[in-house]
Amino acid sequence: MKKLHGISSIVTFIRVAVIAIPLWGLAGISHAQINTDRMMNIARNALAYDDYVLSISYFNLVINYKPYLYEPYFYRGVAKFYLDDYSGAALDCTEAIQRNPYFPNTYELRGLAYINMERFPEAIHDYRIVTEMSPDLRSLWHNLALCYIETDSLDRADSISDIIIKRWAKQADGYSLKAQVFLQRKDTTAAEACIDQALEVDKFNLAAHSAKANIQMSHEQYSEAIQHFDEAIRLNPKQAGNLINRALCHYHLNHYREAMADYDRALELEPKNFVGHYNRGLLRANVGEDNLAIEDFNFILSIDPDDMMATFNRATLLENIGDYRGAIRDYTTVINEFPKFLYGYERRAAARRMIGDNAGANRDEEHVLKEQIAHRYGYSTPTSRQKNKTRKKSQVNLDDYQKLVEEDTQEQEPQYESEYRGRVQNQEQEAKLMLPNENTIQLYKAAGRNDLLNTFQQAFQQAQAGNVNEAIEGFTHVIQENDHFAEAYFNRGILHLLLDDTPHAIPDLSKAGELGIYQAYNIIKKNQNIKKK
To answer: Under the phi-then-psi rule, with left for phi > 0, alpha for psi from -120 to 50, and beta for the rest, what region is 53?
Structure first.
């Protein structure tokens, strides 16, 4: 990834001692005791050394004391972005822009946050502003073009790619972007010509080699595609997608050993990669490694229990190893979802006969016969394992259950240019409702706010009783009375998640994290990732 202009300043500060202070201790420091310059240095130092949650606590101090400054809002937005709290980052950038509308980095950061939230029109607005403020930064134009592609504003994306080609003639980006525009228009011939131009400008361009290989693979030019995948993987051996697609090419050329090695490497890099597990499972089944194939399909179904193709494949494998009851269970699941899938009835009938359920088998076979008669021209079903072409990831035709999965070119994540990444300290944090700690309770009691604690407790009990809407109302009342009650934000955010109301949940969790409940960021990260699947 390219380094984002201006943000690199956060790693240039002199190391200073960072003192861990409990948040309630921080809240009790009087304004007169705070040296805001020192607090900013400590906060940015913590940010530079990836201690994002600590940096937020210090930026909070500066904001509370000098709310008119834009910098602490901007840098707190940076910390939230690192934690995948894109909503919180965007809000902080908005606060910073209100205080200083002439700092280009803020628009760029907010644009990246909007991109990650898939709010592309807002991202375009920010990138149009920042390209006027910093017109000589190629990465800004690059991201703007990709946002236009995301919104199907292809003419505008094309014009941006022309600007990049003209201004940065020795860079391949403009041609690669132009190729993406042509791919969006389904013109693979023009796209391939643009990619060839990109490789003429830069023969070591990773994106161009990947794009060229994918186009050749779509034309079934597997040997030629492998050559470009080889180069792309050499340039970046940690990109799982290229390994998975090269494995597909090897599979079509009957290079099973090479294909298996690529899937293994891809899954070492991305252990939760759906396509890698699915295809490796099918390949293992093809070479008779049924138990290992079952492991792959078990993993897929652990993260997506509704994947009927994986369920059917597991059923056939369970049947192969003699687990007929397990196979019947999976066949039944598929049949209930796809009652017209006659091959499912045929396989279940065979499994039922193996356990002596002849009556059940007869019913399945009679059903298949009646359906075939009902269709004047018969009903075509697969009858044996055979080598098939690949299918697109977006296809859901159950008859394709034996086909390997090919990533849709248009569904691949665009390569936006930024150094930002997300990191959290404890990604396994569970989403559980939270009570205030004893220190918090004593502080509210000392302030004479027993009523607030009682309202919180009542809301908490409503939540435990399953009265989610009533609990949300209670926590909302607490927040209206005291907008610094972190546990109320946290619990309300969790309850919004239970209602699948992510647009309201994420801002609440972001506020809870800002107020010191740092596990909120782990929950935000998890739900951001779920949204992208």
So the answer is: alpha
Beta bridge partners of 405: 391
Beta bridge partners of 392: 406
Q: Name the pTM for this structure.
A: 0.65
User: Can you read off the two tokens belonging to residue 510?
Assistant: 């972001």
Task: Tell me the chain's radius of gyration from C-alpha atoms.
Answer: 28
Q: In angstroms, rounded to a whole number, what is the distance separating the alpha carbons of residues 290 and 288?
A: 5
Q: How far apart are CA 114 and CA 102, in angstroms?
A: 19
Structure-block tokens of residue 208: 């161009």
Q: Which of 100, 27, 96 is nearest to 60 (CA)?
A: 27
- Cα torsion 301, 305, 310, 316: sign: positive
Helix, strand or coil, per DSSP, at residue 392: strand
d(CA 532, CA 104) in angstroms, rounded, equals 28
CA-nearest of 416, 412, 404, 392 to 532 is: 412
From CA 65, how far away is CA 475, in angstroms rounded? 27
Could you read off the pLDDT of 124-176 as tens digits, one per residue? 999 999 999 999 999 999 999 999 999 999 999 999 999 999 999 888 989 99
